[in-house]
Write a structure and sequence with these properties.
Blueprint (H helix, E strand, L loop, with lengths): L5 E6 L4 E8 L3 E9 L1 H5 L6 H22 L9 E9 L3 H18 L3 E5 H11 L8 E6 L4 E8 L2 E7 L5 H12 L5 H9 L23 H13 L5 H27 L3 E5 L6 H14 L2 E3 L3 H4 L4 H13 L20
Helix pairs in contact: 2-3, 4-11, 5-6, 5-7, 5-8, 6-8, 7-8, 8-9
The structure holds 5'-O-[(R)-(carboxyoxy)(hydroxy)phosphoryl]adenosine and zinc ion.
Length: 338
C-alpha cells in the first residue's frame, strides 16, 4: 500500500459543483459543494446548457475554498494527485471538470485520475465506515441510476441488477413535478409524504423478470392516472402512497440480493439514499437478516467531490493514472470487476 497522500477531487457531472481534498483515500480534509438547485428549480429540472455555464463560473471559487480548507492554495502544495468525474453525466458539465483537472495536473506535475461517478457513489457509502465486513450489497439509487451491486472490497464489484426504465430518483422527480411539488422531487415528496396516509392508494410494485431488476415507469404512470381519476385526492396521501411503493420495491430487491450473495452488510448510496423511509426500512431489513446496515450521512449520499477523491485513491491503488487525453463519457457504465 502506498504512503497515504492527499488527492484533490473534482465533481461537475450534473448540477453540483464540488471540490474536496481527501487524505489516504478515506479522511475528508475539506469538501465544498455548491448546488445549482435555485438556478434549475423554475424549469422543474436540470437545464444542461445552464448547468455547464454555471460550472464554469463556480468551479474556481469552489476549488479555492476546498484547497484553502486543506491548508493548500493555488500552487497545489501538498496535493499528490487530481481525481475528476469523467462520466456518466451531462457532456458540457463533465467537460468543465475534466479540463480543469487536466490543467491542475499539468501545472502541479501530479497524476490525473479519471473517476466513474457511479464507482464514486459506491465508495462514498463506505467512506464513513470502512470496516463493514465483506461482501457488501450496495443499493445505489440516484437521479440517473438504480443499481444493486455486490462489493467484495473497494474497487471489486459485481452488478446484480438495475432499472429497465426510469431510475428511482427520476421517478421521484417526475412525480413531484406532476404533483406540483417542485424540484428536486425526492426531498419534496419525502417531506410531504410524512404528513400523508401511505395506504390511501395501492400503486403497483413492479418486479420485472426473475432477476434483481427494477422498473418504475409503470408506477409513475399509475400515479398520473390515479390523480386524473381522483382530482380530489390529497397530495400528501398520493406522495405517501407513491413513496411507500418505491421503497417497498427497493427493499424487496435488496433483501433478495443480500440473501443471494450472503452479504454481511447492506449499504445505501446515491441521492435517493437520503430518503427517510428508505433509511428506516433498510435498517429494519438488516436487523431482520441479522447483518450490518450502513446509511451514509446525507451529504455523502448526494453528489460531492470527497467520494471522487476517495474513488481516485482506490483507482490509483489498483492501476495506473489516466492519460492527458482522457475524454468524457456521458454514458459511462459500471462494469463488473469481480
Ligand atoms: O446522486 P444524486 O445527487 O445525483 C445523481 O447522480 O443523480 O441524486 C439526485 C437524486 C434526485 O433524483 C433527487 O430527487 C433524489 O436524488 N433525492 C431523493 C431525496 N433526496 C434526493 N429522493 C428521495 N428522497 C430524498 N430525500
Ligand atoms: Zn450522483
Amino acid at each position: 500500500m502506498p504512503t497515504p497522500f492527499r488527492i484533490l477531487g473534482i465533481e461537475t457531472s450534473c448540477d453540483e459543483t464540488a471540490a474536496a481534498v481527501v487524505d489516504g483515500g478515506s479522511t475528508i480534509v475539506s469538501s465544498i459543494v455548491s448546488s445549482q438547485i435555485d438556478l434549475h428549480a423554475r424549469f422543474g429540472g436540470v437545464v444542461p446548457e445552464l448547468a455547464g455555464r454555471a460550472h464554469v463560473e463556480l468551479l474556481t471559487p469552489v476549488l479555492d475554498e476546498a484547497l484553502a480548507g486543506s491548508g493548500s492554495d493555488a500552487s497545489g502544495r501538498g496535493i499528490g494527485a487530481v481525481a475528476v468525474t469523467y462520466g456518466p453525466g451531462l457532456i458540457g458539465s463533465l467537460l468543465v471538470g475534466v479540463a480543469e483537472a487536466k490543467a491542475l495536473s499539468l501545472a502541479w506535475g501530479v497524476p490525473l485520475i479519471g473517476v466513474n461517478h457511479l464507482e464514486a457513489h459506491l465508495i462514498a457509502s463506505m467512506l464513513e465506515q470502512p470496516d463493514l465486513g465483506w461482501p457488501l450489497v450496495v443499493l445505489l439509487v440516484s437521479g440517473g441510476h438504480t443499481l444493486l451491486v455486490a462489493v467484495t472490497d473497494p474497487g471489486r464489484y459485481g452488478l446484480l441488477g438495475g432499472t429497465v426504465d426510469d431510475a428511482a430518483g427520476e421517478a421521484f422527480d417526475k412525480v413531484s413535478r406532476f404533483l406540483g411539488l417542485g424540484y428536486p422531487g425526492g426531498p419534496a415528496i419525502d417531506r410531504v409524504a410524512d404528513t400523508g396516509d401511505p395506504t390511501a392508494f395501492s400503486f403497483p410494485r413492479s418486479l420485472p423478470g426473475h432477476g434483481l431488476d427494477f422498473s418504475f415507469s409503470g408506477l409513475k404512470t399509475s400515479v398520473v392516472n390515479t390523480v386524473r381519476k381522483h382530482p380530489e385526492a390529497k397530495t400528501a396521501d398520493v406522495a405517501a402512497s407513491f413513496r411507500q411503493a418505491v421503497v417497498d420495491v427497493l427493499v424487496t430487491r435488496t433483501r433478495q440480493a443480500a440473501v443471494e450473495v450472503g452479504a454481511r452488510a447492506i449499504c445505501l448510496a446515491g441521492g435517493v439514499a437520503a430518503n427517510s423511509l428508505l433509511r428506516r426500512r433498510t435498517e429494519e431489513l438488516a436487523s431482520d437478516l441479522g447483518i450490518g446496515a450502513f446509511l451514509p450521512s446525507r451529504a455523502l449520499c448526494t453528489d460531492n467531490a470527497a467520494m471522487v477523491a476517495a474513488a481516485g485513491w482506490w483507482r490509483l491503488e489498483l492501476g495506473v493514472p489516466s492519460p492527458m487525453d482522457l475524454g468524457v463519457d456521458p454514458n459511462l457504465r459500471l462494469v463488473s470487476t469481480a
